[in-house]
Design a protein that fits this description.
Order of helices and strands: EHHEEEEEEEEEEEEEEEE
Shape: rod-shaped
Number of helices: 2
Largest sheet: 10 strands, antiparallel, barrel
Strand content: over 45%
Amino acid sequence: MKFLFLLLPIFFSPKVSARPIELNVRDYGWLTSFPPLKDVLDFYVAGEEDDLNLEQPILDPSRINYGTANSSVLASKGLGTDYVNDPKRYSLSLGLGAAWDAEKNEGIKDEISGAAASSALTFGYRMNEKLLGYVSFGVIKHNQSFPGKDVDIAGDIKGSHFGLHLRYDLIEKKGSDFFGWGGLKLSGGYEYTKNRVDLTTTLDEPLELDTGGQGILEGRITGNPVYQVKTTTHSLPIELSSSFLFLNIFSLYGGAGADLNFGSSVGKGKIEGDVATLACTSGICVGETVLPQLEARANFDSRSTVKTMTFRGFGGLQLDLPFGLNAFGQVEQMIGTKVIGLSTGLRYIY
């Protein structure tokens, strides 16, 4: 699914002080009896840790979590209500939404700072002449492999959404079916969005250390770093919107909204791999049986909360198709941030 490509730029970044992978000496082995060689190994391990992290995808977990939490709020906007149509009795729609934080910063230079996705099957029902109610829910599950700049990425995204909305027509629409103003509509409700993204990369780094007088140590760090971001948000939106109908073919609509939000995004990481041993391949240390051991560990634990109060503007286009069908696309902008959302779908009205 195309929206998953929005997630990829999060995981390519330049080097910063925060390191997602820690490379540690688990056992110095025979080097324990040679303190100067232990220092040489420590210096070498620090350099290898730097090199490993240059190739790894996530370097600023807290910023990514914050951007993902805010993106989760925006990902489901526009899916759980209808800003244009006035069904006689009911409506049914299916839509997909995605949002991302396009802010650039020192930790994730020239890349986006978080992303989320949502889907919704929405049932609308006219309660009276001015009031309509909507119930929406949806799930997302998708797996795909992507070629990365330094390492390939296996992506696994899972998400769920639930929403309840009411729409009240403050001012009735005016004009004809060919050119008309849709009036002024007030919408509000509750939205729950949950996302989980698991990204797995490959760690395969050859190791070679020349100890000088003792010999050359060689080994290999292997494993699979797994990065997981879990996001849960609750949003209470209120919106004012209006629309214009042209030639009974398409409608333009837009409006402004405010959201009271709760929730957070939690990041965790682990490395599934073996402990690397450094065997002496040449020199006087050949034959040493108690070998130094290195271990790679993930350092990705982080938590960020969503912005409590957000404001946004939105606009969209709806195409009127035969047999009561409508296709729509919508864009959202969270004011004061660079969080952007897109949604699209197909709606049937009766």
